[in-house]
Amino acid sequence: MANSRTRIGIMGGTFNPIHHGHLVTAEEARIQFALDRVVFMPTGNPPHKQIGGEVAAEHRYVMTVLATAANPFFEVSRLEIERSDLSYTVDTLRAMKESYPDQTEFYFITGADAILEILEWKDPKGLSSLCKFIAATRPGYSTMKLERSLALLREAEEAGYPDVELMHIPALAISSTDLRLRVREGWSTRYLVPETVAGYIRKEGFYRDPD
Ligand code: NAP
């Protein structure tokens, strides 16, 4: 019998700013993992870092909406940006689970470097029981470190290891850090971010000062 469970991708990231690498990642995950849709989840108040350029969550949300508006399989959630406390992925997944039918399968999509730190996230065991992970890598990324730490996790059975699939994305040669630098230096961002996002960055004057 065909598997009729709904499969939802949750694309977690700071999106500061969102770029074509993120959009290609989400579309590739949707196709490779037969996802019904991908929900972009801009981080509200990250537990592990400062937001470069001091761009408020609401603005990162708007840029994500502008970038994804044309894709009927993409949507953007306000769940994390509306929470005043820290944005822990396990809390996000629990909240998402409540608003979907019981049998829904969740795939959390993000950068491989973020996944590498997963044991330091809140409740990694609980999180691993709620979703599978899709770890996107950039060109030149050595998967050795990630594969070694995943192997260690699998050995330590009591940890409840995460199910992680690697996905190599050439378009992730684009990075948000590099884009912020480009804006600051006055270099072109054309073809790296959607035009609508570039226009919004110009209009609001983001990233002109050092991070
Ligand atoms: P990050 O540390 O800023 O990013 C790590 C790397 O992954 C960067 O190279 C980044 O590139 C890339 N990346 C980030 N999101 C991506 C995506 N959706 N697709 C492809 N590449 C991506 O990561 P972050 O944005 O702060 O966090 C990523 C996700 O993990 C968020 O949803 C965050 O809430 C979650 N997280 C949760 C916890 C926790 O629960 N305790 C802790 C840490 C992170 P760009 O800079 O170009 O995006």
Structural notes for this entry:
The protein has helices at residues 20-32, 57-68, 89-98, 112-116, 124-130, 144-155, 176-185, 195-204; strands spanning 7-13, 37-42, 74-76, 105-111, 132-137, 164-168. With 211 residues, it is an alpha/beta fold. The protein has a single domain, classed as HUPs (Rossmann fold), CATH 3.40.50.620. A 6-stranded parallel sheet has the order 3-2-1-4-5-6, with helices on both faces. The chain binds NADP nicotinamide-adenine-dinucleotide phosphate. NADP nicotinamide-adenine-dinucleotide phosphate binds at residues 11-14, 22, 25, 41, 43, 46-49, 87-89, 109-111, 113-114, 121-122, 136, 172, 175-177.
Secondary-structure blueprint of this entry?
Layout: E1 7-13, H1 20-32, E2 37-42, H2 57-68, E3 74-76, H3 89-98, E4 105-111, H4 112-116, H5 124-130, E5 132-137, H6 144-155, E6 164-168, H7 176-185, H8 195-204
Parallel strand pairs: 1-2, 1-4, 2-3, 4-5, 5-6
The structure holds NADP nicotinamide-adenine-dinucleotide phosphate.
Residues 11-14, 22, 25, 41, 43, 46-49, 87-89, 109-111, 113-114, 121-122, 136, 172, 175-177 line the site of NADP nicotinamide-adenine-dinucleotide phosphate.
Structure described in brief:
The chain is of the alpha/beta class and about 210 residues long. It has helices at about 20-30, 55-70, 90-100, 110-115, 125-130, 145-155, 175-185, 195-205, and strands spanning about 5-15, 35-40, 75, 105-110, 130-135, 165-170. NADP nicotinamide-adenine-dinucleotide phosphate binds near residues 47 and 89.
